[in-house]
């Protein structure tokens, strides 16, 4: 006969909310770090959540190279600032002073979520601010059709690769809410207005409804 202990169901992860929020540092962290911690704890070992991924750091160069490879032939005598493509390293490099460095002309979203079983990935840009600033406007580059297509092309994917997560007064004041909803109406499911209480259920439900099926 099974013991009483073995018949006792394990508590659902949300039933230990105090421990969950303490571990994720939900209220004290930046919206980026709180998002990363919440998603990491929720997704477990099947997924990897990377903060400030670097794989798009040459995206503008890669995008231009696809149309104009002649612009990236190594000069016979490189000068300061020259950029060229090195096939042996499969990256772009730049002449700086007396050294050759990896060129940095691209973007760096806040988070990358990778399904380790399928290799599929999804980026999330996280922004929060008070009643001033342009953080939400800086995020809008990731709503550009050409940028989204460049990301898809780089990774060989066809699905929408980017989520837009906002918090702070951006999600409590109507002037910002209306602007955000108008900007991301082309992909409404990928927009999350994470209210100031930073509900765990809100961000995990968003992942399950919008992101999970893309990465499977």
Can I get a quick summary?
The chain is an alpha/beta fold and 216 residues long. It has two domains: 161 residues, ECO RI Endonuclease, Chain A, CATH 3.40.580; 43 residues, no CATH class.
Overview of this structure, please?
The protein is α/β, with parallel strands linked by helices and 216 residues long. It has two domains: 4-55 and 107-215, ECO RI Endonuclease, Chain A, CATH 3.40.580; 60-102, no CATH class. It has eight helices and eight strands. The strands form two sheets. It has a five-stranded mixed β-sheet, sandwiched between helices. Strands 2-3-4 form a three-stranded antiparallel β-sheet, with no helix packed on it. A hairpin with a 2-residue loop joins strand 3 and strand 4 (99-102). Mean pLDDT is 88; it is low at 1-25.
Q: Could you list some keywords that capture this structure?
A:
216 residues; ECO RI Endonuclease, Chain A; 3-stranded antiparallel beta sheet; 5-stranded mixed beta sheet; disordered N terminus; alpha/beta; single chain
Layout of helices and strands, plus pairs?
Layout: H1 4-7, H2 17-24, H3 31-43, E1 47-51, H4 59-67, E2 83-86, E3 91-96, E4 99-102, E5 111-115, E6 121-129, H5 135-139, H6 145-155, E7 162-168, H7 174-183, E8 191-193, H8 200-215
Parallel strand pairs: 6-7, 7-8
Antiparallel strand pairs: 1-5, 2-3, 3-4, 5-6
Helix pairs in contact: 2-3, 3-8
Continuous helix count: 8
CATH topology of the largest domain: ECO RI Endonuclease, Chain A
Mean pLDDT: 88
What is the CATH class designation of the largest domain?
Alpha Beta
Strand count, sense and barrel status of the largest sheet are:
5 strands, mixed
**Helix-strand category:** alpha/beta
SSE string, helices as H and strands as E: HHHEHEEEEEHHEHEH
Number of strands: 8
Rg over C-alpha atoms, rounded to the nearest angstrom: 21 Å
The total tally of domains equals 2
Shape: globular
Helix content: 25-40%
- Beta-strand level of the residues, as a percent range? 15-25%
Task: Output the strand order for the largest sheet.
Answer: 1-5-6-7-8
CATH superfamily of the largest domain: Eco RI Endonuclease, subunit A
CATH architect. name of the largest domain: 3-Layer(aba) Sandwich
Extract low-pLDDT stretches. 1-25
Distance between the termini: 39 Å
């Amino acid at each position: 006969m099974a013991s009483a202990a073995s018949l006792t169901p394990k508590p659902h992860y949300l039933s230990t909310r105090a421990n969950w929020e303490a571990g994720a540092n939900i209220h004290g962290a930046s919206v980026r770090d709180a998002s990363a911690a919440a998603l990491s704890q929720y997704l477990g070992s099947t997924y990897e959540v990377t903060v400030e991924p670097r794989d798009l750091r040459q995206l503008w160069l890669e995008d231009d190279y696809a149309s104009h490879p002649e612009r990236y032939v190594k000069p016979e005598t490189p000068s300061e600032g020259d950029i060229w493509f090195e096939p042996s390293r499969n990256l772009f490099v730049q002449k700086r002073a007396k050294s050759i460095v990896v060129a940095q002309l691209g973007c760096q979203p806040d988070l990358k979520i990778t399904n380790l079983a399928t290799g599929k990935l999804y980026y999330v840009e996280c922004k929060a601010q008070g009643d001033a600033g342009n953080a939400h406007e800086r995020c809008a580059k990731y709503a550009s059709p050409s940028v989204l297509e460049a990301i898809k092309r780089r990774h060989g994917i066809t699905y929408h690769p980017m989520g837009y997560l906002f918090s702070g007064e951006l999600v409590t004041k109507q002037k910002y809410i209306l602007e955000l909803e108008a900007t991301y109406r082309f992909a409404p499911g990928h927009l999350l207005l994470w209210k100031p209480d930073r509900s765990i259920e809100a961000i995990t439900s968003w992942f399950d409804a919008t992101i999970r099926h893309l990465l499977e």
